[in-house]
Amino acid sequence: MAILEIKDLHVRIEDKEILKGVTLTINTNEIHAIMGPNGTGKSTLAAAIMGHPKYEVTSGSILLDGEDVLAMEVDERARAGLFLAMQYPSEITGVTNADFLRSGVNARREEGDEISLMKFIREMDSKMEVLEMEEDMATRYLNEGFSGGEKKRNEILQLMMLKPKFAVLDEIDSGLDIDALKIVSKGINQMRGEGFGCLIITHYQRLLDYITPDHVHIIMQGKIVKTGGPELAKKLEEQGYDWIKEELGIEDETVGQEA
């Protein structure tokens, strides 16, 4: 079993503090969901875990099996077993999906133990079948001309091929219709098990209808203010956030662009 520990994490962008003491522990074989109003730090947490240079960690720690994640470069974090499915995946001209995936798989293997081409193709084809992706997706340039749904499926294809210890899925449900949502959820559910843990960042209960989380956390004003089970997400869907603000005496937040 692996463990990802986030302890009293404070993060700022330029002169604005976004996270103000987030503490969270995720074990493999667990799926956690983080929900909260816009601008409260959900995507900032994802960026800080993966080492986006725009986000400055001013105090606190992130540990992966006791190792200091904050001391690692972005590529070291990926090789150590962290994965981020981005809210807005980038397009990369000139690099095919298959080449990108194979390079990513081999980057996590020892030199001399690279995956064979035939084994890679068989595995990629099987995962693409699960995600109901067209065969030509493998030879198209990475995300170039992809629809929103295709980009999100492609993120899950990367997840299934790379097999990280921990994945952070930043609004993977954004812009998906119900059919695409079911397909993406199927891929994530296939990853569940002893060697995999997941942090899902989402606004909506609908994703959690298909991926049942073990724990749901509510983030407001840069802190996790409430934790519960799947029933917490359902209550949010029915009642919104006002009842939490009233219960905890939280003043209304300024709703702005998600940080």
What distance separates the N and C termini? 31 Å
Shape: globular
**Poorly predicted ranges:** 254-259
Number of strands: 12
Descriptive report:
Strand 1 and strand 2 form a beta hairpin. It is globular, with a radius of gyration of 18 Å. The protein is 35% helix and 28% strand. Helix 5 packs parallel to helix 6. The C terminus is likely disordered. The chain is built from nine helices and twelve strands. Keywords: ATP-binding, Nucleotide-binding. GO terms for molecular function: ATP binding.
Characteristics of this structure?
4-stranded antiparallel beta sheet, 6-stranded mixed beta sheet, disordered C terminus, 259 residues, Rossmann fold, 9 helices, 35% helix, single chain, alpha/beta, 12 strands
Mind sketching the topology for me?
Layout: E1 3-13, E2 16-27, E3 31-35, H1 42-50, E4 56-64, E5 67-68, H2 74-80, E6 82-85, E7 92-96, H3 97-107, H4 117-130, E8 141-142, H5 148-162, E9 166-170, H6 178-191, E10 197-201, H7 205-208, E11 215-220, E12 223-228, H8 230-239, H9 242-248
Parallel strand pairs: 3-10, 3-11, 6-9, 9-10
Antiparallel strand pairs: 1-2, 1-4, 4-5, 7-8, 11-12
